[in-house]
Amino acid sequence: MEMTSSKENFNPEFRSTFQSSLDRDGLLICQEDLECSELDDKAVIVLRTSKDHKKNIEVVNEYFGVDLPEALCISSGNNDIKCLWISPDEFWLVDNRQNKAGILDKIELLPKGMSMIDNSAAYGVLEFTGKKMYSLLARWMSYDLGGSLSSKKVVSTTLGQAPVIVFRDSEDKLLMLVRHSFSHYVAGLLKDSAKRI
Amino acid sequence: MRIENHSSHQIDYSQSLTFIFNNKTYKGYKGDTLASALVANDVLFFARSFKYGRKRGLMAAGVEEPNALISLEIGGRYTPNLKATEVMLYDGLSAVSSSNPNALDFRALIKPFHRFMPAGFYYKTFIKQKVWAKVENSLRALSGFSKAPTEKDVDVYDHVFHHAEVVVIGGGVAGISAALEVLNNSKTERVILVDEREHLGGELFNEFSTDDAASTWHKDSIEKLFSYMNEDNSRLTLFLRSAAYAWYDHNYIEVLETNATGESLVTEQGQAARKTIHKIRAKEVILATGAHERPMLFETNDLANIMLSQSVRRFLNEFGVISGKDIVLYGNNDSIYSTAIDLNNINIKCTVVDVRSSEIQSEIVTNVKGLGVKVFQGYAILKANGTHLVRSIELSQVALQGKEWNVSGGSQQLKCDLLATSGGFNPVVHLDCHCGAKTFYDEVSQSFLPQKERNNRQVCGSVAGVGAWQDAVGDAKNKAQLTLKSLGIVKKINQDKLSTNYLNFFNVSQFFTPVEILNRPKVFLDMQNDVTTLDVALSIREGYRSIEHIKRYTAMGFGTDQGKTGNINGIAVAAKFLGISMSEVGTTTFRPAYTGVDFGAMAGREIGDFFDPQRYTTINDCHVSSGAEFEVVGQWYRPWYYPINGEDIHQAVNRECLAARTSLGMMDASTLGKIDVQGSDAREFLSRVYTNAWMKLAPGSCRYGLMCNEKGMIIDDGVSTCINDNHFIMTTTTGGAASVYSALEMWLQTEWSNLDVHLNSVTDQYATIAVVGPNARNLMKVLCQDVDFDRQNFKFMQWRPGTVCGVDARIMRISFSGELAYEINIEANYGYYIWNQVALAGKKWNITPYGTESMHVLRAEKGYIIVGQDTDGSMTPMDVNMGWILAKDKPFSYIGRRSFSISALNSEERFQLVGLLTKDEQVVLPEGSHIIDNKSRSIGYVTSSYYSPILGRSIALAQLKGGLSKMSETVLVKIVQEKQGLKEIPCEVSSSVFYDINGEKVDGND
Questions:
Q1: What is the per-residue pLDDT across B179-203, written as a single tens digit (0 to 9) for each?
Q2: Fold for the domain defined by A42-120
């Protein structure tokens, strides 16, 4: 059997993080006042910054068009790229996959002390909407999503025993980043708990 | 019996329910508890006591009930040791007594010998372990508790986290008032109100028949509360049938909620958990947990139908039931007169016996006398008579002189079929004390009250010693105002002044503990554990002084009721015998849980698949469809082996290993930990954490590294790849990924913060597929044509970027089998696709997927260690014969280097890694078997052992004391063989490399 590795001759099958857990409509959960779906077109780039905070702000603004957020916050830039505060020297750039290459191109331009790595395949992105999303997440998450996670805030916490990042993109929507290897576990927890919501 | 036409406040007479208790069928109503329904059906005996097997009836109506222990349902729904007073009735309910009062009980036969079984009987009699071992099972079988479940629980339990600015615990008058006060005076603050009963109101229902203001206040307050509940995005969360059972630091409170039916509801549409644990974190807590009534003390006070006065009221007013027609009320406070009024209202005959003198003439006493109720003032009950059920009482005159009670005059008998007593009230301070708050003894109320000042907590109502419901409203408002101030919502607070005109149950007389009564037999303090006043006296005679010691010696306060009714009386008795004050005796320690919590509820949904995360690679679906068997490595589910055509593990592994050695195998290696190391000091960083040199590793190359801790012991190993001068990707063992990452971050952040290095976990970013075997190069040439796979241009321990079936990949030429091998690393989203493409292209060479078991065999044949299996945290590189990997001339030291100069770590007598070859080639040594010397002493153990199909014999790796100097010697390995028992297997000590000793296979055949 002869094969060729030129990209044009292949149509590689892309399997999203939660693909095996989704229903026929592509939803993880769909019931009254509660919906959970996967956003499978998101890229996650980890940006690590230097000790020169002023320089960090300049670089991030210039290269990515976003403000470097302060603690536990998100900032948004052009084309809806989002910059999530993860720790004092770690920020995650979340954007559409089609923009990933453009972001990663900036690696070469980063000054000493800053670095960047693609972690898009490592994380699946879940979107929660509906009035009952807090009830669902409260089954497994000790963080005060309703009281502390106001709009444009982000938190690194756990869902059950799985590490997750949760951020509030808008008033009525929560996004959760889940490590690929924990996706089966997380999907199981959410689907099981949804039965009792 | 059920009182006809009684306006009981909890019962829905339109919904009749059928239930079974002790194999008999009964009827009850919706709103009944199991206890109230049984009282309605004239069931008076509920269980037998724990120690003596005495028949017992109800004593209380709620969580404090010590006697009425039952087992609910059978099989997978069986729940032991519930209180009948806490189980809400549902149709079809089935329950049995924890210890059937109607069945023959061995303990009843030894009744004449009870006097020879005082406190400490078991300790003293069975102190010798040999004796105890013989009788333990028999004695435990005799105890009055339910048997433990034997079947898997089929019910569903849940956990939910909550956050609130204010949590109010207790849904009585004070709790309702406090919650409303907070809600009325705030705008965004979230309030959670918790109550263990079905309905809000607490003891207030008892006042409805005589106090219109009480029912009006209740109706208005509940309406207001529900108006808050019905708002959009309501700030009020209400938990009914919910017991707050633990209060931990930082106002973390756990609440156990039982659903409305007490059953799990599982349908196709959804589920309702039978019980839910609510985990609440609050900024402020208002405690309004009320008070439990305590009984009076007299001889044989444990007969059935001797109850607490307020519990009789509660059964009457909430459930419309009562268990007697000729009732004596006995106590030391005004609450018994309230019960008398309620009984009089339904024309039930009652008599009041009040230890207080006739000088006490409060309004309610006068009222009761005015109703024609016979009142004995200045009298006490010395004894209750009856075989199992109270039939009469013996009265005698008493008088308080100073702080001592004197019993005077002869006794007279009074017939009765129900005796209701009240010895005062114990504020429910349990929760407050769980996280360290203290109590103080209040002489006025004769009770232990919670300490007054405490951050972020208020107490109100009965728990704070406020006895009248009208005062509880004012007290709760005042405390809620303090809560609002603490939250910064109000600055100035208005404090209502409490009246002293209302009926206050906390106005009680001195504890009634005359020695004439305490020295009698069968004056029970703890009903559940059959602890009497004489047991307390004995413990004091035997030298115990601390109430904690007295408790443990007598078992007072043990069991499911945790001494809610008996402990304070026990403290009073101890104080009397010790000759010190109640305050000096103090209380025992209050610990969670306040009331029983089901193990199922504790587990919640963290059972089965959710007990521990199951982590899968992106290729998992391929493994499943290939019929793989899995093993758990860390939390990862890895393919163990791939049986075909009914193969067992040995047949499958042999086939897989031979395929990899002779043609082509493939393996999912995605679970290996991967850490991205970037920065201008990345090389220096690797040099410090690994024992070997990294400064000259060229981009495009890989290198194996061994990682030690500061003691010089091996903690991990793996291959790291140089992407460019400032960028490396480190791999770790599957199980060690998180701990290695954490340790490296710790070094970076605490010791080497000057290094320009960033670490990122990229374990999940890449799927890794290893293709292994002599045909690996042939396969790669088919899969990827933009890489030159010529052996001279793509050498062992190098990597190349390439495109595999249209997907960008990093291809590493590394091997954990000794064969020619490549590892294809692609974005995880393409793992499934590439695995299938590799399998498809590899068919030509009969490519065979293999799992972790074959991986172990292949690496053991080559003598490659697995950290954690062939090492145990006490092995140095020298111990595993890898001294060659210690760099000698690094400019900066590396972790562990200093320890290698310690002479003990260089001793030739240390355990050292060697190979073992059994004399009988077909015997596979069990891993963990000990190597013994000629005196049968252990001199080592087997770490890895397999059958090698390529060698046609067994092989093993072992840690052997001084092993490297024992080459070719014969040692004995002690194993246990099925049927044959212990056996000593002779083995030859060998090199740990069994196959391809010169390493010729790694370049392949071409």
A1: 999 999 999 999 999 999 999 999 9
A2: Alpha-Beta Plaits (3.30.70)
